[in-house]
Hints:
single chain, mainly alpha
Amino acid sequence: MIAEVGRQCLLTIPPQHMPQLVYRQSIQPDYLIGIAELTLANFQRQRIFAD
């Protein structure tokens, strides 16, 4: 499946600009890390501009 997606992408994306495609069974760790990073960024922004 991932090989077919890569071939289809190469029809419109030049090889030098082709991103690395990664297939994972679960995106939960990435999702949780993203939520944590957004929470930290918002907390830091709130601390800087709250005063």
